Give the backbone structure.
Amino acid sequence: MKKLNSLPVWILMLLLTVGLLAFGTLRSQGPLTQQGRIDAVSQQLACPTCNGESIYVSRAPAAEAIRNEIAREVASGQNSDNQIVAVIETRFPGSVLLPRTSGVESLIWILPVVALVGGLCGLWLIFRRWKNTALLNASEEDFAIVESALRKMNDVTDDEYL
Amino acid sequence: MLTADKVVAAAHQGLAGPLGRAALLVGIIASVFGAIAAIYTAREAVREEQVRTSRLIPRFAALVLFAAFAAMTAMEYAMITRDFSLKYVQDHGSRSTPALYNFAAVWSALEGSILLWVLALALSVSAVVWRYRKQLGDPLIAWAMAVMFIVLAFFFLLSFAPANPFGVGAAGVTDGPGPNPLLQNHILVLFHPPILYLGYVGFTIPFAFAIAALITGRVGEGWLVETRRWTLCAWGLLTFGIILGGWWSYEVLGWSGVWAWDPVENASFLPWLTGTAYIHSVMVQERRGMLRVWNLSLLLATFSLTILGTFLTRSGVLNSVHAFSESDIGKYLIVFFGLIVAVSLWLIAWRGDSLRSPGSIDSPISREGAFLANNVLFALFAFVVLLGTVFPLVIEALQNRQIVVGEPFFNQLSTPIGIAMLAMMSIAPVLPWRKASEEVLRQRLFWPAWCGIGALVLSLLVGANGLAALLTFTLGGFASGAALRQLVLAARRQGWRGLVGRTNGGMVVHIGVILIAVALAASNSYTRSQELSLKLNTPAKFGGHVFELKGFENEKTDRLTAVKAIVEIDGGQSYAPAITKYVQMGNNIGTPSVKSSWRYDLYLTLEPPVKSDSGEARIKVFIKPLVMWLWIGGALMASGTLLALFPGRRRRRTTDATSARIPLENKQNA
């Protein structure tokens, strides 16, 4: 058992995982089908009449009409997905579901990063503080007393966490 | 001429309104008096041992329960007898709604759903009083009761004033449109809202105990132990309610998804996130007496988020498909929310000194450390969801233009957070308390890590691609390995008892969460769809299956006209996606038909317009991998919560005192 879980074996396992992930990520599934493109575009746009549902989700007549329009655009094959989105957005301003990365709207992207960095810094600070306070001025004798007391208590093993 | 029959009928019609109003009034008065009795008891209990007013608490609790039941019964009675003198019945009732959906119509709009909330809260108050009937003289319990009575009084007031379901409607109305058509074609409308509300309301109990602990100054671990099961129950019900909502969406809405990041969905997900963070980090406090302020804040956040969520979605400030009509209720809710936050923060600041905990954490690589990191992730997730939900309001306030923040935003941010959570779930369950050595980690994580590699290889073999999905499958395998390790070791030691208790039940919940994560990743990443124009008796192929239109079934009643397309799959069983048009509403409502299997679902919808005499139908077919595992995962989460409610094997000792040396070698032959 000792040999099996040694550090080199772990490094091999890590390399194997990274290799397999890279293989799976890079291999292509082929281009999207027409329906796949229609679905992908309609997931990026809000239905104009239905309170924030996407065109993909909504069954309202307006969403149905725009889905058909996207289908026509895709079938004609002239525009890319982004161009189709842009065409529809000019007709229904504010219908793109993904907030922009510029202007005030960029706040929605920046604030989560700020929160993450803040959380991680908080975590780091708190661990550092604890590390500094955790040092005990206990002598060897103190440890011996505590350990013998614990041995008496530990006739039952702690089953809560194995 | 006035006959006796007519008098009885007149008294009959319209009796529900006044009775319901009276019941709500009784409810307000009884909960206010209940709160007064509880506060008096709590204050006197410091001086005397037996406070006589404590005996009044159960009586007021019985009275509020009676009042809430009476109000609900009056509303149901009005709905069932089609009492069109009430505005609510005029708006949401109809003579032609089938009995079951008519019963559920009571909570199909704002006023009735607040009434359901009142009933759920009155039930919780009574349950808590019953559980602590012998300890009502204890100041902690008495204060908790006072808080619960106050919250209940607020909801009775909401139902009495701005969200009055018993308002009198226009004269002469003899029929109504019935509930929203989407709320009358699946049995889940009977279960999803009440269970979700029980979950929301359930968090009032730990909130009340937290406030009571702050007021009495007994901020130690006693109140945590008292509320452990209540919190777990509330969390379990909220979880189950959310999953039922996803199921309903899948079976009814026809876009083949379970979650659309709609504001109302987010409003239920926010307290779930903070509640989940709490049930993890509370273990650190129970074991080590630490994180007191943090745990209190999480509970207060959970409860106030249920109120904020109700405000955002029920007041008309945010648009959502779930949102009911606009009303005055928003002002009441936002004031109540402000009050809760202000009082909670003030109490925490006031008790600041005694909240400072004595312990410290030895190492970040320990179970305590993992719980803390988990909490950072959950808090971040909650922040992202809240931000995305209220961001349109911010933009409207700043720039006076409307934007929609939708699924693509939430998907982009929740994917990395979810993957980080899976990574935590892989490692945290094997970490010992206090400190883990590298050797212990290498040994305990060895087989779980191979489960992860196995899952990765398997998913590559079946053709999976894409980094996010592959990471989800790998970490899903790893995390289930870690959870199974705990369950197997516990079962080997303790037999069937190895499956109960908080840790082991929790691991069953983990496996449920992993199944849901894997199923979501697979169904979101690899769904294929195609619209098929089917002609009668002419087979069409898609995704290795043969679809053949066998005919149409038409249904026409006073209430609706429906057309079903009968589609045979692979020459076997027939499926019948339908489109229904409700006479009173006008809109087409699609009803999907699903063929489920453990590998993938075939999800069929009938696309409008349907010309059944032409012998042609447009059928959209979605092939959705692993969807069934969502429901299996949900069932596992529910059963894991039940297992966690059972007492585990009693521990003789808690974690070693901080004065003990940290055992770095692996003591157990795990």
